[in-house]
């Protein structure tokens, strides 16, 4: 499938280049005039003046002009031999300043000083500056002219010689212009602080290093994107829904690797960036369990921040009883404490594996402004991951504040879809993911079953979806909060396995269906399933014994831990805290250990997803992160659980 898409994409690229207006950046040679240049490209002088209004006042040698190409126009090569000069970095010098001083692209400086791809300039260090032969001669000529005529040099400042003006063309964007001149968008905006929204015809100050290749002005087919810190091929290909080869075809500079600040040309169609959970598009590698403990290689101390809503400011500190009352009365505080106890257990486990962790904990007070205050008043520059906060608004606040540095923020418990920040990881699958997982399970396994769908009026949407994927299903409609045993018996098959899919959270419907099917199961093979196990199933009127006899199956975020597998963890937790771990303590442990192991087996969390395609699994939880449409990641690993006749739980599927 991906190869077909790649071919279609390449066809789009070539078709677009054939039909779109193309432009050539021409360097004026000594003796050339507007007329001679127009004849060279088979265009009129007015065509040149349209895109270069300042040319009406004359053109100078080495000036660069925007040339609209005719069908027979050809690009002119301006490459020359490369030599080098050594530059000792002075205080406060930047790559942008050096590129202007030596009239060379920033990426060219980095190419010959590889450490600058990941490090900042250091005062006093010596770097190599590439200089083309014709450029070197021109700079020597300029230096001589400056010596002979200091008055002229004063009248024409340094920045005038190292910058030029660019006329904004229709449909051009800041990203596109920055790409043409080897700048980042931030550098372009710093050079033009008074320019807001771009309008065709306005003049921008830009660098003198212009792409020699033909430039195609973007339209609805393509757009530009500036690479963020820590982004790699995995994130880019998943974000834009194209493979690595196609991305490189659009951006040849990527052959040297992904670098922060690069401006890339990418498909503009947002529909290419969707996560399809259907079986046909399932990656077999994603369905394999992996054990990261076998690949630990990064032993640097992990800097981890935990943000939880303790609300300590509301607790009076005058007595122990006050603390106890606060814990008993505040459910969020209890969850936070349980979760944090699991975090500490995971840190200890990681230490035994050779992974050191510097753990910082902050009280968010269930307040987004408090989250902002914490980040603004503490140093987060070296943080590898933030676990928490628990609530949606505070989690989104943390992700927004830390998005510029691409510091991962892991939401531990929320199942609500959040804003698509690039650095936000939702570790708990959403309710919609649970439904999709069960639909896939049904689509894969219900083919030879007699399928009966019972859904009340509030579940008409899922009833419709079930009907589409299970076209031979039969339907029974509840009436006044009840389903009769006779109505169900009429659609059951005595000679086949019957799968009854129940979509309701109404206790009366649940009770009548489960008790009626329990009696009918004495002489028929019946299984009960649902895409959403709501709170109604916890009601005393819905007997667990009936669910067990009906082999009840449902999707779940977590499973019941196996005491044989988790025996050591349970014993250590009980010894340390005096109670058995609940689901929040287990999740705190599972999530934190997964984060620490990922950081210890890769450069960072983003790199770990590129290296390891399968899912990780611990006591009750498993993790398999996929990029979200628009940005960020979510964990799509869901269990299909089954209640056994002895009332124990087992995993029906392994992913």
From TrEMBL:
Record's keyword terms, sorted: Signal
Signal peptide: 1-20
Region (Disordered): 135-165
The UniProt record lists the keyword Protein biosynthesis: no
Domain LysM: start-end pairs: 24-67, 85-129
Ranges of Low complexity composition bias in the record: 135-155
Family: Belongs to the leucine-binding protein family.
Protein name (database record): LysM peptidoglycan-binding domain-containing protein
Organism for this UniProt entry: Autumnicola musiva
Lineage, opening ranks: Bacteria, Pseudomonadati, Bacteroidota, Flavobacteriia, Flavobacteriales
């Amino acid at each position: 499938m991906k190869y077909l898409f790649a071919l279609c994409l390449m066809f789009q690229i070539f078709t677009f280049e054939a039909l779109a207006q193309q432009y050539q950046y021409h360097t004026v040679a000594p003796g050339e005039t507007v007329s001679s240049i127009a004849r060279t490209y088979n265009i009129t002088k007015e065509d040149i003046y349209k895109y270069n209004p300042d040319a009406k006042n004359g053109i100078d040698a080495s000036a660069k002009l925007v040339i609209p190409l005719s069908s027979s126009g050809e690009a002119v090569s301006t490459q020359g031999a490369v030599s080098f000069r050594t530059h000792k970095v002075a205080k406060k010098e930047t790559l942008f300043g050096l590129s202007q001083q030596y009239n060379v692209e920033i990426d060219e400086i980095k190419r010959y000083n590889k450490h600058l791809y990941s490090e900042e300039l250091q005062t006093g260090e010596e770097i190599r500056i590439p200089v083309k032969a014709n450029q070197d001669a021109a700079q020597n000529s300029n230096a001589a002219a400056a010596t002979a005529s200091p008055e002229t040099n004063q009248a024409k400042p340094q920045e005038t010689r190292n910058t030029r003006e660019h006329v904004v063309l229709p449909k051009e964007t800041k990203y596109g212009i920055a790409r043409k001149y080897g700048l980042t968008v931030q550098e372009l905006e710093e050079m033009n602080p008074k320019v807001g929204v771009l309008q065709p015809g306005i003049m921008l100050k830009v660098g003198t290093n212009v792409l020699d290749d033909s430039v195609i002005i973007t339209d609805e087919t393509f757009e530009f994107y500036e690479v963020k810190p820590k982004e790699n091929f995995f994130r880019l290909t998943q974000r834009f829904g194209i493979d690595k080869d196609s991305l490189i075809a659009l951006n040849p500079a990527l052959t040297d690797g992904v670098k922060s600040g690069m401006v890339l040309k990418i498909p503009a169609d947002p529909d290419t960036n969707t996560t399809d959970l259907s079986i046909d598009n399932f990656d077999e590698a994603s369905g394999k369990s992996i054990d990261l403990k076998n690949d630990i290689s990064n032993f640097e101390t992990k800097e981890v921040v935990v943000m939880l809503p303790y609300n300590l400011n509301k607790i009076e500190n005058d007595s122990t009883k006050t603390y106890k009352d606060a814990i008993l009365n505040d459910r969020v505080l209890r969850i936070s404490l349980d979760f944090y106890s699991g975090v500490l257990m995971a840190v200890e486990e990681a230490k035994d594996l050779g992974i050191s962790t510097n753990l910082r904990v902050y009280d968010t007070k269930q307040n987004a402004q408090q989250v902002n205050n914490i980040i603004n008043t503490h140093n987060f520059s070296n943080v590898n991951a933030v676990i928490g906060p628990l609530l949606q608004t505070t989690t989104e606040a943390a992700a927004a504040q830390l998005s510029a540095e691409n510091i991962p923020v892991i939401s531990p418990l929320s199942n609500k879809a959040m804003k698509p920040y690039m650095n936000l990881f939702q570790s708990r699958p959403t309710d919609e993911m649970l439904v999709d997982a069960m639909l896939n399970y049904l689509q894969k396994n219900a083919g030879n079953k007699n399928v009966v769908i019972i859904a009340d009026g509030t579940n008409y949407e899922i009833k419709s979806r079930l009907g589409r994927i299970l076209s031979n299903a039969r339907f029974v409609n509840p009436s006044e909060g009840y389903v009769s045993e006779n109505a169900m018996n009429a659609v059951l098959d005595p000679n086949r396995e019957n799968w009854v899919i129940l979509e309701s959270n109404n206790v009366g419907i649940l009770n009548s269906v489960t008790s009626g099917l329990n009696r009918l199961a004495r002489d028929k093979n019946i299984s009960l399933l649902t895409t959403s196990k709501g709170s109604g199933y916890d009601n005393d009127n819905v007997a667990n014994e009936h669910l067990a006899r009906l082999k009840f199956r449902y999707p779940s975020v977590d499973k019941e831990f196996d005491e044989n597998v988790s025996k050591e963890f349970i014993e250590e937790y009980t010894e340390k805290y005096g109670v058995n771990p609940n689901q929040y303590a287990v999740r705190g442990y599972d999530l934190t250990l997964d984060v620490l192991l990922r950081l210890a087996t890769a450069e960072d969390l983003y790199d770990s997803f590129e290296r390891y395609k399968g899912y990780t699994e611990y006591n009750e939880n498993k993790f398999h992160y996929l990029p979200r449409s628009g940005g960020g990641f979510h964990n799509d690993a869901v269990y299909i659980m089954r209640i056994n006749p002895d009332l124990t739980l087992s995993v029906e599927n392994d992913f």
